Structures are given as structure tokens and as C-alpha cells.
What does this fold into?
Amino acid sequence: MIAIENIRKEFPILNRTVNGKPLVYFDNAATSQTPQPVIDAIVDYYQNYNANIHRGVHTLSQEATDKYEEARIKIQKHFNAANSYEIIFTSGTTDSINLVANGFTSLLNEGNEIIVSALEHHSNIVPWQMLCERTGALLKVIPMTQEGVLDMEAYKSLLSDKTKLVFCNHVSNALGTINPIKDIITLAHGVNAAVLIDGAQAAPHIKADVQALDVDFYVASAHKMCGPTGQGMLYGKETWLKKLPPYQGGGEMIAEVTFEKTTYADLPHKFEAGTPNICGGIAFGAAIDYMNNIGFDVIAAYEHELLEYATEKLLAIEGLRIYGPKDTTQKAAVISFNIEGIHPYDMGVILDKLGIAVRTGHHCAQPIMNFFCIPGTVRASFAFYNTKEEIDILVAGVERAANMLR
Amino acid sequence: MTIQEIQQEIVEEFSMFDDWMQRYEYMIELGKSLPLIEDEYKTDDNLIKGCQSKVWVHASLEGDKIAFTADSDAIITKGIIAILIRAFSNQKPKDIIEANTDFIDEIGLKEHLSPTRANGLVSMIKQLKMYAIAYQTQLN
It folds into this structure.
């Protein structure tokens, strides 16, 4: 059982009002809210040991370095990576993907193929298109069904000895579909292709085990799992991280520099040029601790309860259609919907007036919207600090907006 | 009526409403009176960028005045463009170029629109003025 009242007290922002109404925050898939222990970690850093890391011999630098590296170990343990140096701190999922895409420039040739799923966020499409432009590789797409589920038979037929890389999100940001990543990875490895899984949407709900998955790269952002913005991670298997060239040059990532030649630092520093977001990394660790203290099993069970409740209530509204899998066990706590004849933008504006935060638009996944021939959807995404009472407010708000807009 | 007189008229109409819901309902009503753009002009060229919803605007010169027509796939956006066009349509290009748009604030529209949506509004005003500048050049 989740101690919901105690949990809500730990999120100061949940006390505020919007347009004179208590805030109902259902845009968690874009950014989750920040609990007091994470805010405290940020304040503690700036109040007590703000200093540059890995360089200074002075006490503050040493303390900051220790905390930053402790955070890396927390992330390593959370995702069950074999080694802490397989965790690279980045500015977020997009940055992590670009790091890998950039690294593969020298490893791909014309005629090689890259496979991406039809369910991707733009940030897991555009970097690979750019990689294809640089290398002459071809981008192939795993199609999806009308229910927003990947067509695995089609995927199998796309795989060949030309396939070098496969990219897929663990959970779709636009529809909430949980993809069968274990099968995707195993099949890709059958043709010796590397796999990158975008865990941005999965990480707040599901504890991924990178060794059990045998995934080559797994990426996620702190700000979707109770951490700060501008902070993310890349897990890469040691063998791959050693193969990839550095992403950016600068301080921290070097072993030795002369004007003739630079030798690069060992992992993970090879990929961490310049002064990183030290406070962000430490706060990311605090966020992971916070979520693990509640427990991912508890979080998943409670969110599923919210999802089922909201699905049933919303579907009772006339003309409302939910996009994505009908089976709620195949979904994260995300509901992407439209009401017949009502533009999602209009719905979003009215809901905001009622203090309800949802996302409207194409969710940076235009190919998915084109597939359903819609301009966008209204997306309500739930977190473990949301309640059924808030869902009732959403449902009443959607009905009220529909009456106004029809 | 001058642009300013029309704007004042709109402000007065909106001041009759006590709450946001009535204002939005009125805006939606105004959207229904929008002079609709012909389907042939609903092209990508006439689309205004920077809006979450689609907004098409067409302008033509009738004598020395500009007539605007428009449409949107979202009805709140349609109301917003209808308000702008009511103020700017059948006016001389020079007057449109020089018109200020503070009345948007006065009817309590802009303060309720988030930056991204406000950008849509700003893009609409910019586009109407761009048409006016283009026709002014033609008239010179």
C-alpha cells in the first residue's frame, strides 16, 4: 500500500493553485515533480560543498567529487550495470542518444541499416537520420498496429546481416505502450546488431535491469523520475563504450595533452568533457534513492490502479477515444485521448483554466499522429503522487470542456 | 469605424463578462462569425507557424483596403483570429501597420495564454501586419 497522503506532503508544488484552482498535475510524462529530499540535496550542494570535481585537492572539491561518484554508483546499482564506469552522466536522454549516434559515425558504412520503431520520440528519430546522412546508412522503420503496438513479425523481416543498430523506446511517450524490448534485443543480437533502448518514459515506472536485458545502451533523464532537469544518463556496455570515440573534447576527458597528441581519459570520463552538472548528478542520485525507498513495485501497482480507474472513467465520456493498447497491462500510466470533433488544443486550454495540467499536441512524435491522421492528442500521464480524486477532477473537467467546445 | 474604435467595441463587449468561462464562450461564438477562407487558399503557404493548432489566413486588396479571411481547426484559436480580423479587416494597409494591439491584454486574453500559445497569437498579429506591409508597397 502506498502512503499517498504522506507522499503528497513531500512535494511542495502540489500545494499550489493554478487559475484559482488546486493544481492537478497530469503532465508527469513530460516532467515529474520534485520531492523535498531532492530539493534538499540541491540546496545542500550549493550551501555546503559547491566546488569543481576531480581536480581540486581541497576539501570541498573532494567532497563534491565523492558525492558525484556516489550518485553514479546509485544509478549503476539501480539499473544493475556491471560497472559504475559504464554509467555516463549526460544532460538528458536526447544528449545520451546524440552521444551514441555521433560515436557510430566512424563505425557505419554505406549500405548498413539502422532500424527504428514507429513509436519513437523525435529525439530517437532525428539523431539517427543525421547519422544516416553522415554515413550513407539506411533507416528502416518497425511498423505498428492500429492499437499502437509494434509489429514484431515485420521487425523480424527487417533484420538482416546489414542491420548494425536497432533503436526503440522502452515505453512510448505518446501512447504509453510498453514495448517487448527483451525480444527486440535478443532478435537484434541474432544478427549482431547493437541495441539502444530509450528508457526516458519507462524509468519512472519500471526498474530496468540492463544485464538481464543484455542491452547495449540504455538511456534516461532525471527530470522524469523526480530529479532535476538538464541531467540524464547513458548506460553503455564497456566493450561498446571503449569502441566509441569521445563525443566532445575538453577538460576532464583527457589523460594527457600536448599540441601533437591527446590521449583520452578512461571510462567514464572519456565522455564527460568539461565541468558537468555536478549538482544535477547528485540530485539524480537522491531522486533514485527517493523512488527506491517507496519501491518500484509499490509505484507500479499504484499507478496501474490509477490507470485502470482513469481509463474506465474517461471511456464513459461520449465520443472519447483512447489511443494505444486497450490492455492496460501493456501500458505505462499514460492516457492519450481525443474527443470526437474537439481539437486537443482547445481541450488543453480549458483544462488549464480549471487548474489541470495535461500535455496537448503531437508529443514530439509526429509520425504517430500522422499514422492516426490526427493533429495531436490530449495526454494525461500519472505519477505515484496523483490520486483518484484528481482523476475525478480531470474527468469532470473534460466533460465540462466538451460541453463548451462541442 | 477605425481600428481603434473597433478594438474599443470589442473590449466593451468582453467587459460584460464576469468570469473566464463566459469570455471563452463568447470568443468561441465570435469564431463562428469569422469570414471563412476559401478552401483553395487553405495551403501550407497560408499557414501561420508557431501555433499548436492550424491557422490559415488569406488577404486580398479591395480598393484601398485589405479584406482578411481565415480559418482554424481549433475553435478557441478560431475565436482569437476572428477577433483580430474583426479589428483589421476592411482597413487601409497603413492603418493596420500602425495599429497597436494592446486591446488583446484588455480583453484578458493574453494574460491567460501561456508563452507558447501567446507566440501563436503574436505570430497571427505579425502575419496580418506582413500582409499589410506587402499591400502598402503595392499601393505606393
